[in-house]
Write the structure tokens for this entry.
Amino acid sequence: MNEISTLQKARQEYKPKLAGVLVKGIKNLAIVKGNATESVRDKESIKEIFKNLYGAPVITFQEGKTNNSSKKNVGVILSGGQAPGGHNVIAGIFDALKEANLENKLYGFLGGPSGIIEGNYVELTSDIIDKYRNTGGFDIIGSGRTKLETPEQFEKSLNVCKSLNISAVVIIGGDDSNTNAALLGEWMKANNAGIQVIGCPKTIDGDLKNDMIEISFGFDTATKTYSELIGNIQRDANSAKKYWHFIKLMGRSATHVALECALRTRPNIALISEEIAEQNWSLKYITDYMTDIIVKRSAAGKNFGVALIPEGLIEFIPEMKAMIANLNDVLAEADAFEEFTMPEKFEYVSQHLEACNAQIFNSLPITIKHQLLMDRDPHGNVQVSRIDTEKLLIEMIELKLKEMKAEGRFKGKFSPLAHFFGYEGRCAAPSNFDADYCYNLGYNAVALIEFGLTGYLSSVRNLSKPAAEWIAGGVPLTMMMNMEKRHGEMKPVIQKALVKLDGPVFKELKENRDKWALEDCYLFPGAIQYFGPSEVCDITTKTLYLENKEKSLNLV
Amino acid sequence: MNEISTLQKARQEYKPKLAGVLVKGIKNLAIVKGNATESVRDKESIKEIFKNLYGAPVITFQEGKTNNSSKKNVGVILSGGQAPGGHNVIAGIFDALKEANLENKLYGFLGGPSGIIEGNYVELTSDIIDKYRNTGGFDIIGSGRTKLETPEQFEKSLNVCKSLNISAVVIIGGDDSNTNAALLGEWMKANNAGIQVIGCPKTIDGDLKNDMIEISFGFDTATKTYSELIGNIQRDANSAKKYWHFIKLMGRSATHVALECALRTRPNIALISEEIAEQNWSLKYITDYMTDIIVKRSAAGKNFGVALIPEGLIEFIPEMKAMIANLNDVLAEADAFEEFTMPEKFEYVSQHLEACNAQIFNSLPITIKHQLLMDRDPHGNVQVSRIDTEKLLIEMIELKLKEMKAEGRFKGKFSPLAHFFGYEGRCAAPSNFDADYCYNLGYNAVALIEFGLTGYLSSVRNLSKPAAEWIAGGVPLTMMMNMEKRHGEMKPVIQKALVKLDGPVFKELKENRDKWALEDCYLFPGAIQYFGPSEVCDITTKTLYLENKEKSLNLV
């Protein structure tokens, strides 16, 4: 990869803006410690598991004078799905390390957490780092999904660190990866290994978020990229006036991505999984809700529109969740099921499911019934994430419209097109915001290391203000944890932030969606800009803006 | 649509750059007439159909003094699929008209060519125009696909024009729409109707191109938008290192879009339909070609990659084309075919197709066989455009790899993901190039009208140079025509430009593709930029650059 695009060339020159407190340099910091902290829930269990890390104070940096920094080597890991800005976190770590002591070294573990276990690494030099500044992707060292959680893995990691003289590891990841960072940090401390562990909050899903973490990195760039495409499609829908576009958006379970995109583009429909779960909407109710909008628009001469569908929807529909659980049980007990023909399978399932679940199963389009019975994981369970939710909804709506047409209640046309946006945004080149934010997260991680801290998440806050006013510090990982059931076992995990139905972001959608449904209020955000007017290039998400507006109001 | 995005707000201020010769204003022009022209082929037939228009000279503008412009009303039509920049063509027409005479009026016909037939129109005032400057989409007046070709339609159009005192019509469209513009212009002239007709070259497909038309508008923006997404996906592939992305790209039949995107992004595979047709590649050959690259990459530890698939591929595979023609005949003669079960249908088709075609049909994955027999148009014909080519190739490759795995010739993993990009780019906000080019096309169309010309395509050339050096003028529509069979009848049509296999653009791909297949030479073009350095914001396509480099070489 020697040749690079002209944009990449121009972006290499971009210098990320540092938080006011960090701008004086890594050697001019002092720490302010808050009070001892508690986990968000399940305090006793979390304390029991994290005997050494639990209760640490929140850290905030201020200007000061650091003692001379001793020479040290640091390792860095990219963990889980890609998010725009990961390379800038690493660049921030590198620059801060070299600023602290020119002899410091940064090692990148290759292919995710397995790199530290297996000792696959590369020394990151300025030659390498410079090529990746302000670029998207995780290709500088690759990523992976290995879970760091067993003492054997920790032991191996320690040996690798020892061999490289590494005294601190930075794990860049989402909620699960940072939970693992805490487990690794706890083990290292319990074993007096002398290895610090610091996490950085990454995920385009936007669900690693709390009072101390305003936003996870990558969310800004990914949602802006999806919004560009949604806006373009809305222009197309509004020009051709003949298609309904059903757009599924990546974002495992929480609906932050679809909600942010909805506020940026104002589509006719945006489903929010958290609302569906809370209101106990059935698949039929969702179908009716969407069909109603389609029919009303059609009556106004508009046989077109745009609907946003969150990727995790199915698992938030209570009746679907129950039916699938029941289906898994039925399939587990079925003898020689694979030898049945498809109609026999449908018949069998329909007879063995509980009555209410059988009714739901039978109401599904045939393609979806196929998918439910064919795409099963190695344990024989239905793979919910493989269900084409956008196509399921299209088929349900088509059935409903056919009924209504027969009854003379629908006279229009319905020509649906399905899209799925995910991979298009995970590795986009970071927006100015993500380029800045990520660089600060990395730089700040080194500041935490310099003060000997471990089990912390790098935290940069006050992000709706200009970088000069950003606050830098650290949050104890244990503070964000609770116990949850995973694969049948209670485990400590960082609490996932779902969309708050009483929060200002959802409220903005709720107050406007009826108008957006019928009138055409489409916004066309266009492509991410790097060089233009500040209001075009530097403003971050509507989600962050609205959440912080609320905070300010609360203070009044 | 009162609120607009911050980018749209900033872009409203953009002033498109005019060609050097147009910059002095619509009143300071003179025309230079070339020699009488001939059609590219079928001269006698074209001359017979276009008695009044045939043989007109190529027009080039130079600085001069126009006589005082008489007051006039002009009508404009957007025809066919959307392309970025259509609104700027209209803005260019509007500004030039008002510059010529403040009392001039511009009427927009609504919903495409049907607007002029049915008399649906709106007067375009500066209030309306200003809202749409430098925006994507055709929503200012909408578009449509009605074909203007019968005397009845022309008669009605004339009456509508008379009622609005319109003396010139500008049709913004692709090859078919401009063929219709010529037919309308011919009829108006033959009937001494006093209505001039001027066309503008639009299509993201890039196939409306010849010596006088270097590029159709929208191609630049659409291919840049697709290339942004392809680049992002390549970053993702190269980071996650576990998926093969099969990306189908819009572009009816010619492969200019996929070729341009390939040069901008350097994927591992880019299929070019024109090459497949010329080399008489079979579906099996294509499958083997792709599988070979997949297996070689896998052997090098790379179970990932990106392949670009042109939308029109199937119809360029000679054996598929023949099989589908045969299948259409078989289905036309089948009695009560719809009452058969699917296995019976397969059996019937397999027995009634010619042996070689039956063999091809039987080699197809079952989902594709389903699609071939189910998605038929009102005439009962197979709908080739509905076939998911990217999924067909994935399934063929999976079968081949399974075979190879059983024989121990493939040990890797193949996890494919399918994408289709089309609607994402057709209505993107125009790049600086398209914003400028389109504005010039519209402005220049008025210049042609001012000189009393009809049956011309607005032509702005020398586009690889800065706007100051652009050449403006007109090309007789008849010059670009030949006779082709359409729905069983010979008709005059503008010759479609396919990818030239001996041209410099395809050559660039051919010389590099083996390297790109196995090494990772991915380019990441990123999002379209409007405000940054000129080499990032103003350079147009690789296709135009390479085609003009060649032209320069020929002169030496």
